[in-house]
Give the backbone structure.
Amino acid sequence: MKENKTKYMILGLLNHQPMSGYDIKERVDHALSMFWNSGFGQIYPTLASLAEDGDIQLLKKESKAGPDRKVYQITEQGKVMLKKWLATPTEKEEVRYEMLLKLFFSSAIDPTDVIRNIESFQMKKQEEKIRLDMFCMELEKIMNESEDHRMYYLTARFGQKVYEAYLQWAQQAIDMLRENEEPML
């Protein structure tokens, strides 16, 4: 059975500071989305499971603008579980690219459509790389302030290298396809 890694992502975030489910989703979207995604449909059930198991505890924060917010914090038990997971080597990286799946079978469509799909991929990756470059520049300024910042920086640098490879591959693929493009009559 596949293990729910979302619980470790949540424990890692709560190890930094108490958060609500909404705060966790915002952090995922802002800081983790280039290498890890989780939606509300994964986050909230996992929060409930972690609370039930005693790995996190619920704190209620009063809100002046509506109902009380449910804020969670990691427990000592949760910290032990997180540290154990962090120290364990990764078994398998999961990589799935719908764009590559489509490309694999794309001899069935016009090459101009294939090029358009790759250009779309290239444009998205260029935008994401710009974001990573900005993260790295900001983290370089504060990297020595905490061990967390150094780990964030190393993660972002990995992303930069991956995105550079994406962009290089995309340009080579587009060039190759354009070389072999035959005008349609």
User: Anything to note?
Assistant: The domain at 6-87 is CATH 1.10.10.10 (Arc Repressor Mutant, subunit A). The longest helix spans residues 147-179. The chain has a mean pLDDT of 90. DSSP finds seven helices and three strands in the chain.
